[in-house]
Write a structure and sequence with these properties.
With 436 residues, the chain is an alpha/beta fold. It has a single domain, classed as TIM Barrel (Alpha-Beta Barrel), CATH 3.20.20. The protein contains 16 helices and 13 strands. It has an eight-stranded parallel barrel with strand order 1-2-3-4-9-10-11-13, surrounded by seven helices. It is globular and about 70 Å long. The structure holds flavin mononucleotide. The site of flavin mononucleotide has 25 residues, from strand 3, helix 8, strand 10 and helix 12.
């Protein structure tokens, strides 16, 4: 547990974040913001004003086509389409801020390690250490098909491949020491080739022969995040991540998952407890009744089919085959085992029906809501942080940017008054602030 709550803000570079049909809400500005630098820079400035550690861009790089084996509902409702690239937003948002970190999701099945380190380290260099990488192994069949892989790669094998991916990234990151850069104007020597190691990696899945593409930086690597929560996913997180993102639908689930992650950390010989940020969706209004009414208003417009299109893509299972009112059991999947387990476990340890799971996915992909007045939301966040021993929270907005504004203007000052949240940034870089 940190001595202060750490906060990140989830965003997605598409028509809505987790709240399906968010784009249809009169308050929402994100759809127009897809063609407007100022929209993203405004969000970044608001988050920096609220002393957030950073933004986290989730990414679904291709349109889900698992539900009824079709892209139709995903496209029709904007449920997982369009799939704009979050990477340019890192530069746009970093340019408008001084402290805010910007984490971006990049899948190890959707690119090569050389291109990943090139893109991420270029941005980290430009922003002086304010970039983070959410390393995902790419659970989405749509991504695999879009990238010409022909079929979905089996679950555990994706992580084996991702291990190789990370080995190459680290070789590239470690191959140019800072003293290799001479910048000697008198001799014309820019760099000392004798100090630069050319990477020549040949693995089972991946290979790379290259000189590292980016100058070494005093700010080191991008901050590494990971969110796999299956057994194999957790091992990968322990091997590679500095911060773990997780989703659990309720506090008992968070407590249980913290225990599992602490055990996994010990088994991996780590002396420190894992730093875990749980997903949370605040809905803030001046009264509890108004906040609940806002939640209902957002939920009412979402068709079951739009939810099931997204959920089927994440589960890797066509959910049109199931009776929505029968309890669901975990199924074998090559997609996201962790998110399936988190979605299908009831707070009391019982099962949930597909309709109940869909109700929770509609607004927040199984992330629990805290709904009420600013005082209530702040008190609940502090309670959850203390009860679970987590590092902090990764907030999911409903509509943008108003729900982010509400949180920063109304809840952050209360958390600060309660002494559980920073009033100014401790450091310069994303890592310094996250680790403070
Ligand atoms: C908070 C959170 C955010 C995630 N964001 C993404 C994402 O943006 N893109 C993605 O492909 N997977 C994302 N995932 C999925 C995981 O990274 C992981 O691929 C998935 O849970 C499957 O791994 P597992 O079977 O080991 O749990 C996210 C998971 C969590 C918990």
């Amino acid at each position: 547990m940190a001595n202060k709550i750490h906060l990140m803000q989830m965003l997605i570079h598409t028509a809505c974040t987790h709240t399906l049909l968010g784009w249809a809400d009169p308050r929402d500005e994100q759809l127009d913001g897809l063609q407007d630098f100022a929209y993203w820079q405004g969000l970044a400035r608001t988050l920096e004003r609220g002393c957030f550690d950073g933004v986290f861009f989730a990414d679904s790089p291709a349109t889900h086509a698992v539900y009824k084996s079709s892209v139709v509902p995903s496209v029709q409702y904007g449920a997982s389409w369009p799939n704009h690239d979050p990477m340019p937003l890192v530069a746009i948002m970093a340019a408008a801020t001084k402290h805010l970190g910007i984490g971006v999701t990049l899948s190890t099945t959707g690119t090569t390690p050389y291109l990943a380190t090139r893109r991420l380290s270029t941005l980290n260099y430009l922003s002086r250490g304010r970039v983070g990488w959410n390393i995902v192994s790419g659970f989405s069949m749509a991504e695999h098909m879009a990238n010409g892989m022909g079929a979905q790669m089996p679950h555990d094998e994706r992580y084996d491949q991702a291990d190789e991916f990370m080995a190459i990234c680290h070789e590239l990151w470690n191959s140019v020491p800072r003293d290799a850069i001479l910048k000697n104007a008198a001799t014309g020597q820019f760099a000392d080739p004798a100090k630069i190691r050319q990477v020549d990696f040949k693995g089972k899945y991946l290979s790379c022969k290259a000189v590292a593409p980016v100058l070494p930086s005093e700010y080191g690597l991008p901050v590494l995040f990971q969110a796999g929560s299956s057994g194999r996913g957790m091992k990968f997180a322990m091997d590679h991540a500095e911060i773990i993102f997780a989703i659990q639908g309720h506090v008992p689930g968070m407590i249980k998952s913290m225990e599992q992650l602490r055990t996994a950390a010990k088994e991996h010989g780590k002396s420190e407890a894992p730093k875990v940020l749980y997903g949370l969706q605040p809905i803030v209004r001046s009264t509890d009744a108004q906040a609940r009414a806002r939640m209902d208003e957002l939920k009412e417009r979402i068709p079951l089919e739009a939810i099931l299109a997204r959920l089927s893509g994440v589960f890797g299972v066509d959910l049109s085959q199931f009776d929505p009112d029968r309890p669901m059991k975990e199924m074998e999947t090559q997609a996201s085992r962790g998110l399936m387990a988190a979605t299908l476990s009831g707070a009391d340890g019982g099962t949930v029906t597909l309709r109940q799971a869909a109700a929770q996915w509609a607004l927040s992909v199984a992330i629990p809501q805290v709904v009420g007045t600013p005082e209530h939301v702040a008190a609940e966040i502090e309670r959850m942080w203390r009860e679970t021993g987590c590092y902090g929270f990764n907030l999911s907005p409903t509509t943008n940017p108003d729900s982010v504004d509400d949180f920063v203007d109304q809840v952050v000052p209360i958390l600060q008054k309660r002494g559980v949240y920073r009033t100014e940034y401790e450091g310069e870089t994303f890592r310094q602030n996250l680790m403070a």
